[in-house]
Amino acid sequence: MAKGGAASPGSAMVLEAVNRDRMLAVAGDLIRIPSFKGEETAAARFLAGFFEERGYEVELQEVEPGRFQTIAILRGAGGGKSLMLNGHVDINPVAQNWTRDPWTPTVSGNRLYGAGIRNMKGGVAAMIEAAEAVRLSGVELKGDLILACVAGELQGGVGTSHLCENGPLADMAVVPEPFGADNIVTVHAGSAEMAIHTIGRARHMNLAEQSIDAIEKMCKVIPALKGIKFRHTPRPDLPGLPRINVGTIIGGIGRDHNRSEATYNADFCSVVVDVRFPPGATAAMVREDVEAVLDAIKAEDPEFQYEIEMPPPAKYRAFTMIVEPFDLPKDEYILDSVLRQYRTVTGREPRGVGSVLPWSYSADDTSKLYRAGVPCLLHGPAGGIESATAPDEYSIIDDMEQVARVLALTALDVCRLPAS
Length: 420
What we know:
This protein is α/β, with parallel strands linked by helices. It folds into two domains: about 10-190 and about 325-415, Zn peptidases (Aminopeptidase); about 190-315, Alpha-Beta Plaits. The chain has ten helices and 17 strands. The protein has helices at about 10-15, 20-30, 40-55, 115-135, 160-165, 215-225, 285-300, 335-345, 365-370, 395-415; strands at about 55-65, 65-75, 85-90, 105-110, 110-115, 145-150, 170-175, 185, 185-190, 190-200, 245-250, 270-275, 305-310, 325, 350-355, 375-380, 395. Helix 6 (about 215-225) crosses helix 7 and helix 8 (about 335-345) crosses helix 10. It is elongated, with a radius of gyration of 23 Å. It starts with 10 loop residues before the first helix and ends in a 6-residue tail after the last helix.
Protein backbone atom coordinates (compact mmCIF):
# COMPACT_ATOMS: atom_id res chain seq x y z
CA MET A 1 0.00 0.00 0.00
CA ALA A 2 1.20 3.46 -0.80
CA LYS A 3 2.26 5.84 1.92
CA GLY A 4 0.24 8.99 2.46
CA GLY A 5 -2.96 9.94 0.68
CA ALA A 6 -4.28 12.61 -1.64
CA ALA A 7 -5.96 15.38 0.33
CA SER A 8 -9.49 16.43 -0.63
CA PRO A 9 -10.28 20.12 -1.18
CA GLY A 10 -10.89 21.66 2.21
CA SER A 11 -8.93 19.00 4.11
CA ALA A 12 -6.46 21.50 5.54
CA MET A 13 -9.28 23.72 6.79
CA VAL A 14 -11.06 20.80 8.43
CA LEU A 15 -7.90 19.48 10.09
CA GLU A 16 -7.04 22.96 11.36
CA ALA A 17 -10.51 23.15 12.93
CA VAL A 18 -10.00 20.02 15.06
CA ASN A 19 -9.63 21.25 18.65
CA ARG A 20 -8.24 18.94 21.33
CA ASP A 21 -9.44 21.03 24.28
CA ARG A 22 -12.98 21.26 22.91
CA MET A 23 -13.05 17.48 22.44
CA LEU A 24 -11.85 16.88 26.00
CA ALA A 25 -14.49 19.26 27.34
CA VAL A 26 -17.25 17.23 25.67
CA ALA A 27 -15.71 14.00 26.92
CA GLY A 28 -15.56 15.42 30.44
CA ASP A 29 -19.21 16.44 30.32
CA LEU A 30 -20.14 12.91 29.29
CA ILE A 31 -18.06 11.36 32.08
CA ARG A 32 -19.96 13.43 34.64
CA ILE A 33 -23.27 11.86 33.58
CA PRO A 34 -23.70 8.24 34.75
CA SER A 35 -25.29 6.34 31.86
CA PHE A 36 -25.41 2.64 32.62
CA LYS A 37 -27.44 0.50 30.21
CA GLY A 38 -31.08 1.38 30.60
CA GLU A 39 -30.10 4.71 32.18
CA GLU A 40 -28.92 6.68 29.14
CA THR A 41 -31.63 9.36 29.03
CA ALA A 42 -29.76 12.04 31.00
CA ALA A 43 -26.80 11.74 28.64
CA ALA A 44 -29.15 11.75 25.65
CA ARG A 45 -30.81 14.97 26.80
CA PHE A 46 -27.43 16.61 27.41
CA LEU A 47 -26.31 15.70 23.89
CA ALA A 48 -29.57 16.89 22.38
CA GLY A 49 -29.06 20.31 23.97
CA PHE A 50 -25.42 20.39 22.87
CA PHE A 51 -26.31 19.71 19.23
CA GLU A 52 -29.33 22.03 19.18
CA GLU A 53 -27.20 24.94 20.41
CA ARG A 54 -24.89 24.38 17.46
CA GLY A 55 -27.52 24.19 14.76
CA TYR A 56 -27.76 20.47 14.15
CA GLU A 57 -31.09 18.87 13.34
CA VAL A 58 -31.82 16.83 16.47
CA GLU A 59 -34.12 13.93 17.26
CA LEU A 60 -34.54 12.36 20.68
CA GLN A 61 -35.60 8.81 19.86
CA GLU A 62 -37.60 6.89 22.45
CA VAL A 63 -36.08 3.43 22.30
CA GLU A 64 -38.29 2.12 25.12
CA PRO A 65 -40.84 3.99 27.23
CA GLY A 66 -38.94 6.80 28.95
CA ARG A 67 -35.57 5.70 27.50
CA PHE A 68 -34.02 7.97 24.87
CA GLN A 69 -31.09 8.21 22.50
CA THR A 70 -29.88 11.19 20.47
CA ILE A 71 -29.62 11.50 16.70
CA ALA A 72 -28.05 14.69 15.32
CA ILE A 73 -27.73 15.56 11.64
CA LEU A 74 -25.40 18.10 10.06
CA ARG A 75 -27.33 18.66 6.84
CA GLY A 76 -25.45 18.80 3.58
CA ALA A 77 -26.28 20.99 0.61
CA GLY A 78 -27.91 18.03 -1.17
CA GLY A 79 -27.04 15.52 -3.83
CA GLY A 80 -24.35 13.66 -1.88
CA LYS A 81 -23.96 10.40 -0.02
CA SER A 82 -24.45 10.35 3.74
CA LEU A 83 -22.17 9.12 6.50
CA MET A 84 -23.16 7.98 9.99
CA LEU A 85 -20.85 8.09 13.00
CA ASN A 86 -22.39 5.71 15.53
CA GLY A 87 -21.32 5.47 19.17
CA HIS A 88 -23.01 4.14 22.30
CA VAL A 89 -23.41 6.15 25.50
CA ASP A 90 -24.27 3.24 27.80
CA ILE A 91 -21.33 2.21 29.94
CA ASN A 92 -19.99 -0.85 31.77
CA PRO A 93 -20.37 -1.28 35.54
CA VAL A 94 -17.90 0.71 37.62
CA ALA A 95 -15.44 -1.59 39.36
CA GLN A 96 -14.14 -1.26 42.90
CA ASN A 97 -10.81 0.25 43.93
CA TRP A 98 -10.67 3.37 41.81
CA THR A 99 -7.87 5.69 42.93
CA ARG A 100 -9.81 8.74 41.71
CA ASP A 101 -13.46 9.79 41.50
CA PRO A 102 -14.85 7.91 38.45
CA TRP A 103 -17.36 10.70 37.76
CA THR A 104 -14.75 13.49 37.70
CA PRO A 105 -12.77 13.68 34.44
CA THR A 106 -9.04 13.66 35.15
CA VAL A 107 -6.22 14.26 32.69
CA SER A 108 -2.85 12.72 33.52
CA GLY A 109 -0.25 12.79 30.79
CA ASN A 110 -1.80 11.30 27.64
CA ARG A 111 -4.72 9.71 29.47
CA LEU A 112 -8.24 10.93 30.23
CA TYR A 113 -9.69 9.05 33.19
CA GLY A 114 -13.38 8.63 33.98
CA ALA A 115 -16.19 6.12 34.11
CA GLY A 116 -17.21 4.96 30.64
CA ILE A 117 -14.53 6.94 28.82
CA ARG A 118 -12.95 3.92 27.17
CA ASN A 119 -16.17 2.10 26.33
CA MET A 120 -16.99 4.32 24.66
CA LYS A 121 -17.40 7.96 25.57
CA GLY A 122 -13.91 8.67 24.24
CA GLY A 123 -15.04 7.48 20.83
CA VAL A 124 -18.27 9.47 21.09
CA ALA A 125 -16.31 12.62 21.94
CA ALA A 126 -13.98 11.99 18.98
CA MET A 127 -16.85 11.60 16.52
CA ILE A 128 -18.53 14.73 17.86
CA GLU A 129 -15.29 16.68 17.44
CA ALA A 130 -14.98 15.37 13.87
CA ALA A 131 -18.43 16.76 13.08
CA GLU A 132 -17.69 20.04 14.85
CA ALA A 133 -14.47 20.45 12.87
CA VAL A 134 -16.39 20.03 9.63
CA ARG A 135 -19.10 22.46 10.75
CA LEU A 136 -16.75 25.14 12.04
CA SER A 137 -14.39 24.89 9.07
CA GLY A 138 -17.11 26.23 6.79
CA VAL A 139 -16.36 23.51 4.23
CA GLU A 140 -19.62 22.46 2.56
CA LEU A 141 -20.76 18.86 2.38
CA LYS A 142 -23.21 17.60 -0.21
CA GLY A 143 -24.53 14.70 1.82
CA ASP A 144 -25.67 14.55 5.44
CA LEU A 145 -23.38 13.74 8.36
CA ILE A 146 -25.39 11.79 10.96
CA LEU A 147 -24.25 11.38 14.56
CA ALA A 148 -26.04 8.51 16.29
CA CYS A 149 -25.41 8.53 20.05
CA VAL A 150 -27.18 5.29 20.81
CA ALA A 151 -28.41 3.40 23.86
CA GLY A 152 -28.11 -0.25 24.74
CA GLU A 153 -25.11 -1.44 22.74
CA LEU A 154 -24.12 -3.35 25.86
CA GLN A 155 -27.43 -5.21 25.60
CA GLY A 156 -26.65 -6.45 22.09
CA GLY A 157 -27.58 -3.33 20.12
CA VAL A 158 -30.98 -2.19 21.38
CA GLY A 159 -30.52 1.42 20.26
CA THR A 160 -28.97 0.70 16.89
CA SER A 161 -31.66 -1.91 16.19
CA HIS A 162 -34.27 0.80 16.85
CA LEU A 163 -32.35 3.10 14.51
CA CYS A 164 -32.21 0.45 11.79
CA GLU A 165 -35.97 -0.07 12.03
CA ASN A 166 -37.00 3.59 12.28
CA GLY A 167 -34.16 5.55 10.65
CA PRO A 168 -32.39 7.64 9.81
CA LEU A 169 -29.82 5.44 8.10
CA ALA A 170 -26.87 6.43 5.93
CA ASP A 171 -24.97 5.23 2.89
CA MET A 172 -21.96 4.29 5.07
CA ALA A 173 -20.96 4.33 8.74
CA VAL A 174 -18.03 4.26 11.14
CA VAL A 175 -18.33 3.01 14.72
CA PRO A 176 -15.49 4.36 16.93
CA GLU A 177 -15.28 1.47 19.40
CA PRO A 178 -12.11 1.50 21.55
CA PHE A 179 -9.93 -0.71 19.39
CA GLY A 180 -7.05 1.72 18.82
CA ALA A 181 -6.45 4.66 16.51
CA ASP A 182 -3.97 2.61 14.46
CA ASN A 183 -6.43 -0.21 13.76
CA ILE A 184 -9.24 -0.40 11.23
CA VAL A 185 -11.41 -3.39 12.17
CA THR A 186 -13.80 -4.97 9.67
CA VAL A 187 -14.51 -8.35 11.31
CA HIS A 188 -16.13 -9.23 14.62
CA ALA A 189 -17.57 -12.28 16.33
CA GLY A 190 -21.19 -13.10 16.85
CA SER A 191 -22.48 -13.23 20.41
CA ALA A 192 -25.18 -15.59 21.64
CA GLU A 193 -25.96 -14.95 25.28
CA MET A 194 -28.33 -17.30 27.05
CA ALA A 195 -29.59 -18.17 30.51
CA ILE A 196 -29.41 -21.88 31.31
CA HIS A 197 -31.46 -23.11 34.25
CA THR A 198 -31.34 -26.37 36.17
CA ILE A 199 -34.50 -27.36 38.01
CA GLY A 200 -34.51 -29.26 41.27
CA ARG A 201 -36.83 -30.13 44.17
CA ALA A 202 -36.55 -28.05 47.36
CA ARG A 203 -36.58 -29.78 50.72
CA HIS A 204 -35.46 -28.83 54.24
CA MET A 205 -32.01 -30.15 55.02
CA ASN A 206 -33.63 -32.58 57.46
CA LEU A 207 -35.16 -34.25 54.39
CA ALA A 208 -32.16 -33.92 52.11
CA GLU A 209 -32.65 -37.44 50.80
CA GLN A 210 -35.90 -36.32 49.14
CA SER A 211 -34.39 -33.26 47.48
CA ILE A 212 -32.95 -32.60 44.05
CA ASP A 213 -30.30 -29.90 44.35
CA ALA A 214 -30.37 -27.55 41.34
CA ILE A 215 -26.93 -26.17 42.22
CA GLU A 216 -25.49 -29.67 42.28
CA LYS A 217 -26.99 -30.31 38.84
CA MET A 218 -25.47 -27.06 37.58
CA CYS A 219 -22.08 -28.35 38.69
CA LYS A 220 -22.44 -30.93 35.90
CA VAL A 221 -23.42 -28.27 33.37
CA ILE A 222 -20.50 -25.87 33.72
CA PRO A 223 -17.66 -28.27 32.82
CA ALA A 224 -19.79 -29.72 30.03
CA LEU A 225 -20.30 -26.23 28.58
CA LYS A 226 -16.60 -25.46 28.74
CA GLY A 227 -15.89 -28.64 26.80
CA ILE A 228 -18.34 -28.06 23.92
CA LYS A 229 -17.00 -28.51 20.40
CA PHE A 230 -19.11 -26.02 18.49
CA ARG A 231 -19.82 -26.57 14.83
CA HIS A 232 -18.02 -23.99 12.72
CA THR A 233 -15.65 -23.50 9.82
CA PRO A 234 -12.27 -22.58 11.32
CA ARG A 235 -10.82 -19.22 10.35
CA PRO A 236 -7.06 -18.72 10.67
CA ASP A 237 -7.62 -15.02 11.39
CA LEU A 238 -9.91 -15.88 14.35
CA PRO A 239 -8.13 -18.78 16.04
CA GLY A 240 -9.82 -18.18 19.40
CA LEU A 241 -13.36 -18.68 18.11
CA PRO A 242 -15.72 -20.16 19.10
CA ARG A 243 -15.31 -19.47 22.81
CA ILE A 244 -17.68 -19.63 25.77
CA ASN A 245 -17.76 -17.82 29.09
CA VAL A 246 -19.91 -18.59 32.12
CA GLY A 247 -20.31 -15.08 33.49
CA THR A 248 -23.00 -15.36 36.17
CA ILE A 249 -24.33 -18.08 38.48
CA ILE A 250 -27.15 -17.79 40.98
CA GLY A 251 -29.28 -20.36 42.81
CA GLY A 252 -32.10 -20.35 45.32
CA ILE A 253 -35.75 -21.15 45.90
CA GLY A 254 -38.09 -20.40 43.01
CA ARG A 255 -37.47 -18.70 39.70
CA ASP A 256 -36.44 -15.49 41.44
CA HIS A 257 -33.68 -17.39 43.27
CA ASN A 258 -34.81 -16.54 46.80
CA ARG A 259 -31.72 -16.93 48.98
CA SER A 260 -33.19 -16.28 52.43
CA GLU A 261 -33.37 -19.96 53.47
CA ALA A 262 -29.99 -21.64 53.63
CA THR A 263 -31.63 -24.62 55.36
CA TYR A 264 -33.29 -25.53 52.06
CA ASN A 265 -31.53 -26.71 48.93
CA ALA A 266 -31.96 -24.64 45.77
CA ASP A 267 -34.65 -25.79 43.37
CA PHE A 268 -33.63 -23.32 40.65
CA CYS A 269 -30.11 -22.48 39.54
CA SER A 270 -29.14 -20.29 36.61
CA VAL A 271 -26.02 -19.42 34.70
CA VAL A 272 -25.75 -16.70 32.08
CA VAL A 273 -23.25 -17.57 29.38
CA ASP A 274 -21.86 -15.80 26.34
CA VAL A 275 -20.78 -17.75 23.28
CA ARG A 276 -18.67 -15.90 20.71
CA PHE A 277 -18.72 -17.50 17.28
CA PRO A 278 -17.14 -16.74 13.90
CA PRO A 279 -18.70 -15.67 10.61
CA GLY A 280 -20.33 -18.67 8.96
CA ALA A 281 -21.81 -19.98 12.21
CA THR A 282 -25.16 -18.82 13.58
CA ALA A 283 -26.76 -18.31 16.96
CA ALA A 284 -29.21 -21.10 16.12
CA MET A 285 -26.30 -23.50 15.59
CA VAL A 286 -24.82 -22.43 18.93
CA ARG A 287 -28.07 -23.18 20.75
CA GLU A 288 -28.37 -26.59 19.12
CA ASP A 289 -24.81 -27.47 20.21
CA VAL A 290 -25.55 -26.41 23.79
CA GLU A 291 -28.78 -28.42 23.84
CA ALA A 292 -26.94 -31.49 22.57
CA VAL A 293 -24.51 -31.36 25.50
CA LEU A 294 -27.29 -30.83 28.05
CA ASP A 295 -29.35 -33.64 26.54
CA ALA A 296 -26.34 -35.93 26.98
CA ILE A 297 -26.29 -35.10 30.70
CA LYS A 298 -30.01 -35.79 30.91
CA ALA A 299 -29.56 -39.16 29.24
CA GLU A 300 -27.18 -40.20 32.05
CA ASP A 301 -29.12 -38.55 34.90
CA PRO A 302 -32.92 -39.03 34.90
CA GLU A 303 -33.32 -36.32 37.58
CA PHE A 304 -31.58 -33.69 35.45
CA GLN A 305 -33.92 -31.03 34.05
CA TYR A 306 -32.93 -27.85 32.26
CA GLU A 307 -34.33 -24.86 30.38
CA ILE A 308 -32.66 -22.35 28.05
CA GLU A 309 -33.68 -18.75 27.45
CA MET A 310 -31.81 -17.15 24.55
CA PRO A 311 -31.30 -14.24 24.81
CA PRO A 312 -31.62 -14.02 28.61
CA PRO A 313 -34.59 -12.23 30.18
CA ALA A 314 -34.10 -8.54 30.91
CA LYS A 315 -33.89 -9.16 34.66
CA TYR A 316 -30.38 -10.54 34.23
CA ARG A 317 -29.25 -7.21 32.69
CA ALA A 318 -27.24 -9.09 30.07
CA PHE A 319 -27.61 -8.99 26.28
CA THR A 320 -31.28 -8.89 25.35
CA MET A 321 -30.49 -9.34 21.64
CA ILE A 322 -28.40 -11.73 19.60
CA VAL A 323 -25.43 -10.24 17.76
CA GLU A 324 -24.60 -12.01 14.52
CA PRO A 325 -21.01 -12.00 13.17
CA PHE A 326 -19.74 -9.23 10.90
CA ASP A 327 -17.28 -9.44 8.01
CA LEU A 328 -17.11 -6.38 5.75
CA PRO A 329 -16.18 -7.13 2.13
CA LYS A 330 -12.77 -5.68 1.34
CA ASP A 331 -14.01 -3.78 -1.70
CA GLU A 332 -16.42 -1.51 0.20
CA TYR A 333 -15.78 2.19 -0.34
CA ILE A 334 -15.87 3.03 3.38
CA LEU A 335 -12.79 0.88 3.98
CA ASP A 336 -10.92 2.54 1.12
CA SER A 337 -11.91 5.98 2.40
CA VAL A 338 -10.86 5.43 6.02
CA LEU A 339 -7.56 3.93 4.86
CA ARG A 340 -6.85 6.97 2.69
CA GLN A 341 -7.77 9.43 5.42
CA TYR A 342 -5.66 7.53 7.94
CA ARG A 343 -2.64 7.82 5.63
CA THR A 344 -3.31 11.52 5.09
CA VAL A 345 -3.46 12.20 8.84
CA THR A 346 -0.57 9.97 9.95
CA GLY A 347 1.66 9.52 6.90
CA ARG A 348 1.90 5.79 7.60
CA GLU A 349 0.05 2.50 7.22
CA PRO A 350 -2.28 1.31 9.99
CA ARG A 351 -1.04 -1.35 12.37
CA GLY A 352 -4.01 -3.64 11.75
CA VAL A 353 -6.71 -3.86 9.08
CA GLY A 354 -9.52 -6.41 8.87
CA SER A 355 -9.37 -9.01 11.66
CA VAL A 356 -7.47 -7.43 14.54
CA LEU A 357 -7.04 -9.49 17.70
CA PRO A 358 -8.29 -9.48 20.37
CA TRP A 359 -10.79 -6.87 19.19
CA SER A 360 -12.35 -9.07 16.52
CA TYR A 361 -13.46 -11.40 19.31
CA SER A 362 -15.77 -8.59 20.40
CA ALA A 363 -19.36 -8.07 19.26
CA ASP A 364 -20.85 -4.67 18.50
CA ASP A 365 -23.37 -2.66 16.48
CA THR A 366 -21.70 -2.89 13.07
CA SER A 367 -23.41 -6.18 12.26
CA LYS A 368 -26.84 -4.61 12.72
CA LEU A 369 -25.95 -1.62 10.55
CA TYR A 370 -24.52 -3.87 7.83
CA ARG A 371 -27.61 -6.08 7.79
CA ALA A 372 -29.67 -2.91 7.40
CA GLY A 373 -27.71 -2.11 4.22
CA VAL A 374 -25.11 0.25 5.69
CA PRO A 375 -21.48 -0.71 4.92
CA CYS A 376 -19.48 0.11 8.03
CA LEU A 377 -16.33 -0.56 10.03
CA LEU A 378 -14.73 0.08 13.43
CA HIS A 379 -12.14 2.78 14.06
CA GLY A 380 -11.80 4.37 17.48
CA PRO A 381 -9.40 5.45 20.25
CA ALA A 382 -7.73 2.98 22.58
CA GLY A 383 -7.55 2.76 26.34
CA GLY A 384 -6.15 0.15 28.68
CA ILE A 385 -7.04 -3.33 27.41
CA GLU A 386 -8.85 -4.15 30.69
CA SER A 387 -9.92 -0.65 31.59
CA ALA A 388 -13.62 -0.87 30.67
CA THR A 389 -14.28 -3.20 33.60
CA ALA A 390 -11.30 -2.34 35.83
CA PRO A 391 -10.67 0.62 38.11
CA ASP A 392 -9.25 3.83 36.66
CA GLU A 393 -10.74 3.46 33.18
CA TYR A 394 -9.08 5.74 30.67
CA SER A 395 -8.86 6.70 27.02
CA ILE A 396 -5.68 7.76 25.22
CA ILE A 397 -5.99 11.43 24.32
CA ASP A 398 -3.69 11.33 21.28
CA ASP A 399 -5.80 8.46 19.93
CA MET A 400 -8.99 10.47 20.43
CA GLU A 401 -7.58 13.42 18.50
CA GLN A 402 -6.19 11.25 15.70
CA VAL A 403 -9.52 9.46 15.29
CA ALA A 404 -11.35 12.80 15.22
CA ARG A 405 -9.09 13.91 12.37
CA VAL A 406 -9.55 10.70 10.39
CA LEU A 407 -13.33 10.77 10.86
CA ALA A 408 -13.54 14.44 9.86
CA LEU A 409 -11.69 13.75 6.60
CA THR A 410 -13.80 10.63 6.01
CA ALA A 411 -16.93 12.76 6.31
CA LEU A 412 -15.45 15.25 3.87
CA ASP A 413 -14.73 12.45 1.41
CA VAL A 414 -17.92 10.39 1.68
CA CYS A 415 -20.36 13.29 1.91
CA ARG A 416 -18.99 14.76 -1.30
CA LEU A 417 -19.69 11.63 -3.34
CA PRO A 418 -22.68 11.99 -5.67
CA ALA A 419 -25.80 10.33 -4.38
CA SER A 420 -26.77 7.25 -6.36
